[in-house]
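DATA SHEET
Item: assembly model
Revision: 1
Owner: S.N.
Input lines:
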Amino acid sequence: MKRLEEEMIVPEGWGFVETIDRRDFLRLTSTGLMVVFAVKPPEGTFRPVWNFAEQQRTPPDFNAFLHIGANGRVTLLVGKIEMGQGIITALPQIAAEELNVPLDMVDCVMGDTDLTPFDSGTFGSLSVRVLGPILRAAAAEARAVLVQMAAEKFGAKADDFDVKDGVVINKSDSSKRATYGELAGGKKIERRFEGKAALERVAEFTVVGKSAARRDGVEKVTGRAKYAGDIAPPEALHARIVRPPAHGATLTSIDTSAAEKRPGVRIVKTGDLVAVLHAHRDEADKALKLVKATFTPSPSTLSNDNLFAHLEEVAVDKRPFGAAGDLAAGEKAATQMISAKYTKGYVAHAPMETHSAVAAMGTDGRVTVWASTQTPFPLQTQVARALKLQPDKVRIITPYVGGGFGGKSAGAQAVEAALLAVAAGKPVRVTWSREEAFFYDTFDPAAVISIRAGVDASKHMVLWDNDIIGAGSRGADMFYDVPNHRTVTKGSWSGNTGAMHPFAVGPWRAPGANANVWARESAIDTLAAKAGMDPVEFRLLNLKNARMRRVLEACAKQFGWTPKPGPSKRGVGVVCGEDAGTYVATMAEVKVDAATGAIKVVRVVCAQDMGVVVNPEGAKQQMEGCIMMGLGYTLAEEVRFKDGEVLEKNFGGYTLPKFSWMPKIETVLVDSPDVPAQGGGEPAIVTMGGVIANAVFDATGARITQLPMTPARVKAAMTKK
Amino acid sequence: MKPIAFTLNGVAKTLTVDEDRTLLWVLRDDLGMTGTKFGCGASFCGACTVLVDGKEVRTCVTPVSRVAGKKVVTVEGLAQGDKLSPVQEAFVEHVGYQCGYCTSGMVIGATALLNENPKPTRDQIVQGMERHLCRCAAHQRIVDAVESAAKKMAGGRK
């Protein structure tokens, strides 16, 4: 238990991992200025991407707490978490900008259900886009309060004062000055308000829009950064849980006697869980191997071989997503038509940190869980429900998260740790093995997407008929000008809609949009080729959206695109996409090995209009990550499964992008000061499937309609062509 | 159980543990060195890499007995006090990380690579780091960092 004596600062290694309790927190914030800002974003600015029933009884979402103490340090308290996306730097930048304090005066406490305000989770590229303006409003309020206090102190008007580096200074008499710390210290000032987010004043920004060094670098290169699996309360035991071999298999018999004979081993049974506990993880691993358990076979008969036929069979009652005009009229007007079916399998999240959690019972009847999670507040409710406790008896603390990509929106490991800790009467650590991580992952769903489309004699698109099974609707908005279009969907990218999937599916970085954009842009490219047009010119001809056009032109300029109808044998491709409010265009150059069908991506250029960019370097890191990670689902990643068993056990069979795959990556941020900050964590990845597919078509004339584009599939398509 | 002696980050250690205990978990559970990470348990990902006598070793598949009498360096042992090693400095400068979970192994792997080959070409860096996985896909910046560290270290040796 680390006691912080004076002000709230973020201790080494992470926030409050070590940890301070609620009472200490209240004492620390008992003086100084505390601003609590609660707001619901205006209608239409936020499309819900997750629907927690629990949200009904929680306070309004997207709140910000901000504290300024006697030493002038600013502490942001936010329910978001840091999983590599860099908001531990970008959010303080926003507050520093508004408060006129140096960035290094701002600390950020994240994802602790005792200390930070409710937040539904870190996903959907929402942190800067939605929380950013709210933080800015809270900071503006804090600044106004402090300026007013300075004015009162010197018997002048607030308008007479400026703020520079955290010092409030009288404009005409600079001897009348007070630091934020002097103004806030020794008093207890609290402002609670609700309202609208502050307006942008882009031209005046000095911190926002400038690249700031990431604040997590030194901790991460020295090994000091703490992740959930690094937390080791006294007497904690590692748990390894007996698992079924397949989804749908149930336990019929179990013999733990051999495991129990090993020194230091405890067997704990609670509910459906049977676990082997030991102080050392490797000893627990060995003991688990000695447990003899038998299971019923899984009732599932699905495998990669019959998957797509199954999806088409169960996809009845499709829901309309978007429509305009009249498909029959479009078909009549069309002089050239295409029709294609695109299929993709399940894709794993595979963050390098497997799901981990450590649960400890307090003497006060409360349970603390350190968890690798993207959703600490929903997880609090989930753990409380499992333990039959009120949610306020459960505290979730989120240290650094070792990658999430949507997969850590689900938190079964935290529930397991909590149940086992209660049953064992000791703190329990659960770190899923890589095999468990593959087995219990909430995969990006398999999908079957059918598109019929047509152009008239003037090469204008007149028909778009899009039928989506499995992927949901994200990324399926039609931003090209098509007078007659219709999109229908069946199945969501989240949950498991009954008989559709043999295991759970869930949000995977830009959920569904990777599949939908790939299918759409493949079809657009096919239309362009059929019309005998260069794919960029064809898109521009059918595109009025000014932001999209500008991004496409910026990308073409950086790439050095010269128009030529495909297939031009040059191996170049283009894609347009829109995600999380951001417009993105990507171009790529590939080489295809005619003998093996192997694709080598040589160069990728990606341009984005993401509105105001808070941290340009941070935004580029996200774009580069999207591009390189996107090569995985495009070229290699596909979960093999059979009869409820996940055949992927580790990285020997399931291939992630490697150093040798690395193309030359160039990123372009299109200046867009009139648009508020939009999402940055996901947009670029939605373009990767399409841009590679289109570049492969350009190189070979073969159109690959299944992801991933493995050498065998490329070879087959080239032979069929 | 025979005592097993080795040096860990320059400090002599003698442990009395089963000789088939896994080095990764001895480091993490017995010695509290949590900078070394568990990623796959089967030597595919590299998150658990440490230096043993200057060469990279995957601790998740290494019995502790294998380091008897040897020098083990974990990510915690690279900096001299607050002074980061050239490789660590370059990773910070080039932002060769995102979530940071693979970073310990990457930094150690790059250190071993430069121990072996102080002037690698970019292709040699790619090949040398190939068996380290990074899901956030910071690859380009990691290669930049290793390249820059090599240059800096070469400068220092002149």
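QC remark: Chain A touches chain B through 60 residues (CB under 8 Å).
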